[in-house]
């Protein structure tokens, strides 16, 4: 009988239950809530589902994910060494039409203006007591660009990755709810009714040269983001070349799906109770919202400036798409514009600032890395 | 590589200047590509 009890105790002591804490339980509930939001409410299900499941897995004690070789080590390697964000950018480049941006380069300025949210949030984070690297990582949530947020955070404040990734992807899924009130606040009904001229056709030559020239110029200026910009533009070159359909198809479908699974699950694996359940996480969630709202407002206000500068030809609503979140932010511009004027088709016009926002966020991340420097290796 | 500044206002101003500067230059490059295309390449 004693031997039986000893064996039973041994099984219990080796089980996860013996080390299971209240924090682990809370984080599992957080994971289940995120699963509910993703699967039942449709909030970014492709990303939030693996993040939520990774969160549940991360809070099972004694799994050895951090120490024992295996698939989880491979996933965590990809997260810790910034392997996945550039691969996601390869797929984004292959899926995105840069034509509207090339046809109307002025929209680049809206993508730049929308980065103001990053710095509003950065300044707020510094005043709330975060150090400069943590503040930069929190600010980048305002770029509404998940891969760049993960990339920068892993370089500058890896201990905040879980909270920042969840905030970034949650707000990206909430773009259709967050942006319209801000867009309406900074525009009149007459502004929203403005019909923009059709974009000029963009030649094959321009589409081919743009990614190459952009990669060279931005990478030379900001080498720390060369992998992000380079992969984004390489993916776009696959798309536009006309003779690389197989590579383009792989980049935007199979590879994108595989990397999304790994990146999102790996992000969830960083959401351990000991690093996630603290006051900082609440502040990060709040600052992320400020960053998002600030970026949207910055883009729309710059849209107003452009409208005045070009004699009323620009609909300021397309400025909100400068926060990235490709292509959802552009769709929001289209929806809000069409509500004011059913004959208004802003989607292609909004894709210009939308793509510019992706490039602008990567430039902002590279500049912060160059100015502040990555976190010291421990 | 290790940076020097931690002044939030300085970081914000310098960074926004660089973001605007890079994207403005990118816009000029696009215009140049278009001009080159119209003058020499002549692709459709």
What does this structure look like?
The complex is a heterodimer of chains A (378) and B (44). Chain A has 21 helices and no strands. Chain A has 378 residues and is mainly α. Chain A has one domain (72-372). The longest helix of chain A is centred in the last third of the chain and has 31 residues, at 279-309. The radius of gyration of chain A is 22 Å and the shape is globular. Chain B is an all-alpha fold. Chain B has a domain at 10-36. Chain B contains 1 helix and no strands. Chain B is rod-shaped and about 50 Å long. At the A-B interface, helix 7, helix 8, helix 9, helix 14 and helix 21 of A face helix 1 of B.
Q: How is the secondary structure organized here?
A:
The complex is a heterodimer of chains A (378) and B (44).
Chain A: H1 2-14, H2 22-39, H3 45-58, H4 71-80, H5 84-95, H6 99-103, H7 108-113, H8 116-127, H9 132-139, H10 146-156, H11 161-173, H12 175-185, H13 189-192, H14 204-221, H15 226-241, H16 245-252, H17 254-269, H18 273-276, H19 279-309, H20 328-340, H21 347-372
Chain B: H1 8-41
Provide a short characterization of the protein structure.
Chain A is mainly alpha-helical and about 375 residues long.
How does the overall form of chain B come out from the CA principal axes?
rod-shaped
The profile of the biggest β sheet of chain B is: none
The figure for the number of domains of chain A is: 1
Q: How many beta-strand elements of chain B?
A: 0
Q: Could you tell me the number of beta strands of chain A?
A: 0
Structural class of chain B: mainly alpha
Write down the overall mean pLDDT of chain B. Answer: 84
Q: Helical percent range of chain A?
A: over 70%
Series of H and E elements of chain A: HHHHHHHHHHHHHHHHHHHHH
Q: Note the overall shape of chain A.
A: globular
Distance between the termini of chain A: 50 Å
SSE sequence of chain B, one letter per element:
H
Mean pLDDT reading of chain A: 92
Report the radius of gyration of chain B as a whole number of Å: 17 Å
Query: From the structure provided, what is the oligomeric state, counting identical versus distinct chains?
Result: heterodimer
């Amino acid at each position: 009988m004693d031997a039986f009890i000893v064996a039973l105790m041994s099984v219990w002591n080796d089980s996860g239950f013996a080390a299971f804490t209240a924090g682990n339980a809370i984080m599992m509930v957080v994971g289940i809530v995120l699963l509910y939001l993703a699967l039942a409410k449709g909030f970014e299900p492709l990303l939030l589902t693996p993040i939520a499941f990774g969160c549940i897995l991360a809070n099972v004690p004694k799994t050895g994910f951090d120490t024992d070789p295996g698939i989880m080590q491979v996933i965590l390697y990809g997260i810790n060494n910034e392997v996945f964000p550039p691969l996601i950018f390869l797929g984004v480049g292959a899926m995105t039409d840069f034509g509207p941006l090339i046809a109307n380069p002025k929209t680049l300025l809206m993508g730049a203006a929308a980065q103001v949210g990053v710095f509003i949030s950065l300044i707020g984070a510094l005043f709330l007591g975060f150090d400069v690297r943590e503040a930069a990582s929190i600010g980048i949530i305002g770029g509404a660009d998940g891969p760049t947020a993960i990339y920068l955070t892993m370089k500058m404040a890896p201990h905040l990755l879980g909270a920042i990734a969840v905030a970034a992807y949650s707000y990206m899924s909430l773009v259709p709810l967050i942006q319209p009130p801000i867009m309406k606040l900074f525009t009149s009904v007459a502004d929203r009714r403005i019909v923009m001229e059709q974009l000029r056709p963009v030649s094959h030559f321009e589409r081919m040269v743009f990614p190459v020239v952009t990669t060279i110029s931005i990478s030379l200026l900001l080498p720390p983001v060369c992998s992000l910009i380079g992969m984004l533009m390489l993916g776009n070159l696959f798309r536009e070349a006309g003779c690389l359909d197989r590579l383009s198809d792989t980049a935007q479908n199979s590879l994108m799906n595989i990397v999304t699974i790994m990146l999102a699950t790996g992000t969830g694996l960083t959401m351990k109770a000991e690093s996630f359940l603290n006051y900082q996480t609440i502040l990060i969630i709040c600052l992320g919202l400020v960053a998002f709202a600030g970026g949207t407002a910055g883009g729309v206000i710059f849209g107003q400036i452009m409208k005045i500068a070009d004699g009323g030809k620009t609909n300021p609503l397309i400025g909100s798409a400068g926060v990235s979140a490709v292509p959802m932010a552009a769709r929001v511009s289209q929806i809000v514009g069409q509500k004011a004027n059913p004959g208004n088709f802003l989607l292609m016009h909004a894709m210009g600032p939308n793509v510019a926002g992706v490039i602008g966020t990567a430039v902002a991340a590279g500049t912060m890395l160059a100015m502040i420097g990555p976190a010291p290796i421990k | 590589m290790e940076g020097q500044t931690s002044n939030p206002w300085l970081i914000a101003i310098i960074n926004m200047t660089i973001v605007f500067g890079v994207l403005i230059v990118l816009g000029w490059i696009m215009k140049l590509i278009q001009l080159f295309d119209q003058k020499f390449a002549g692709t459709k």
